[in-house]
Amino acid sequence: MGTEGIVGAVIGILIGAVGFGGFLYVTRMTAKKQADDIVDSGRKKAEEIHREAELQAKENLLAKKTELEELRSKTMMEVRRERELVEQKDQQLKQQSEGLRKQEKMVEASQRRVTEKLERNTKREKDLEELLEQNRRQLHQITGLSREEATQRLLSLLEAELSSEIGRRLLRHERNVTEQLEQKARDMLLIALQRYAASQTSEATTSSIDIPSDEMKGRIIGREGRNIRSFEKETGCDLIIDDTPGVVIVSGFDPIRREVARMSLSKLIADGRIHPTKIEEVVRENEKEIRKVIRRKGIEATDEVGLGGVHEKVIDYLGRLHFRTSYSQNVLRHSIEVAFIAGLLAEMVGLDENLARRCGLLHDIGKAADHELEGGHPKIGAEILKRHGEGPDVVHAALGHHDEIITEYPYTVLVAAADACSASRPGARRESLERYIRRMEELEAIAREFKGVQQAFAIQAGREMRVIVSAEEADDQTAAKICRDIANSFEQRLSYPGEIKVTVIREARFSELAR
Questions:
Q1: Mean of the pLDDT values across residues 416-432?
Q2: The predicted structure's pLDDT at residue 513
Q3: Distance separating alpha carbons of residues 230 and 11, to the nearest angstrom
Q4: Overall average pLDDT of the 217-230 stretch
Q5: Does domain 433-506 have CATH number 3.10.310.10?
Q6: What was the pLDDT predicted at 279?
Q7: What is the average per-residue pLDDT within 217-224?
């Protein structure tokens, strides 16, 4: 190899080195650019992550803030509600405190008036003693009478002077006491009625039965009347089948037998098989069923009132009252209502509430057997209760809740008051308009029959009679006799629930013209 070959080799090496260096430079620059791109991409991602983190933090903060606001609102509402309740209680306490202050003032005023009256009475007694001593000395000086004679004459003079004054004071005090007692009794009755807000107790025991067609009437009568005769024999009630379309009427004075007859006829009509054997079978089934109903109604009544230890026979009598009505008022519901009202009254006057309820629930028990025994329902009820171990208060409440009221039996008075409230309140008992008008006219006509009566007015739905008599034809004693005679005539000639108050008014009127 020559010199040219060596030069060429060196040149080739140099060229290769330059090319390799350029390759390395390009490679390094490319790597640097890629590294810069990676760094930029990482920085951008980091910035995006940072922004997302900030956004998420802001959203979480906003959610927390909203939750805190809601919690704050609820807390404020609860605080406001508690504040209102506290203010209401404060207002109630203020009202109660004001009422107590008023009562204290009233008591203080009453005590002051009593003290003043006592002082006046003491002063009057002293004045009378001084007057008596003065008269005694004058009598001794003037007449020379003995002490006994002077004392007798002085007492006669004092009696004549004070008799009219004593009479006026007694009448005034009697009138004041009567007004106060009437107001107190009225308030107690109103409070008892308000505390016991009973539903309307007006129910009617129907005796009519609907039939699907008039052809059923012939099947009820049967061939030659054998079905209707068998039915009347088994039930003890009459069947009235007339020309009224779609109706058959069951008639009977005993409400239990009438209810058995009604149920039996309804089942026979629904079954369609009507013959003597089937009639006897259905009636026997219904008699067993009605006995179960009676026992259940009696137990429900004692449970509702809260009584225990009632004899089973008394419970059965109570259940029978469910089928008894008085002027369309169900007697069992009436008895329960009387029990609650009597219990409330007893509680207010300091008597035994449970005993008053017992007396009220059992006071009309005689109506369950007055079709079977002789006498009025008060007497029958008293005998039933006495026979089955009830106490004297309960027995006398049944016996005397209408007229035989004795003060040594206070529960009889409570039951009588509760019975009058239940029977005479609006809606308890109903009657037709024609009958109501006829009864009002009859009351006024009876009152006008007596001599001296000028006018007579029936008021308070017939529970009070206002009579005006002539002052010229009747004096006070005659007016009192007329009042008593009118009340006796009502008792003897009329039948009515509750009581009728008769008030006779006698007044003289004078008029003149001033010219």
A1: 65
A2: 67
A3: 153
A4: 84
A5: no
A6: 86
A7: 83
In the structure encoding, which two tokens stand for residue 180, read together? 């106060």
Of the pLDDT bands very low, low, confident and very high (cuts 50, 70, 90), residue 163 is low
Strand runs labelled E in 278-330 = 325-326, 329-330
> Phi and psi of 508, rounded to 5°?
-110, 135
> Whole-prediction pTM value?
0.47
At 459 the three-state DSSP class reads: strand
Q: Three-state DSSP class for 389?
A: coil
Interatomic CA distance for residues 403 and 413, integer angstroms: 10
Average pLDDT, the chain: 80
Question: What is the predicted pLDDT for the residue at 200?
Answer: 43
DSSP per-residue string spanning 330-346: EHHHHHHHHHHHHHHHH
Structure token pair of residue 462:
């017939």
Residue pair 387/373 in contact by the 8 Å Cβ criterion:
no
Q: Report the pLDDT value the prediction gives residue 511, as an integer from 0 to 100.
A: 65
- Residue 377 neighbours by CB distance under 10 Å: 21
Residue 176: both structure tokens together: 């004041």
263: tokens are: 């149920």
Residue 359 CA: distances (Å) to CA of 33, 46, 246, 362, 504:
113, 94, 45, 5, 35
Task: Tell me the three state secondary structure of residue 416.
Answer: helix
Q: Which residue did the predictor score with more confidence, 395 or 495?
A: 395
211 and 246 Cβ atoms separated by less than 8 Å:
yes
Beta bridge partners of 251: 238
CATH of span 208-296: 3.30.1370.10
Pairwise CA distance, residues 33 & 297, whole Å? 105
Query: What are residue 210's DSSP bridge partners?
Result: 247
What CATH number labels 309-424?
1.10.3210.10
Listed residue (274, 215, 273, 220) closest to 246, CA to CA: 215
In this prediction, residue 276 carries a pLDDT of: 86
Given a cut of 80, whether residue 54 has pLDDT beyond it is: yes
Q: Where are the beta strands (DSSP E) in 393-463?
A: 453-459
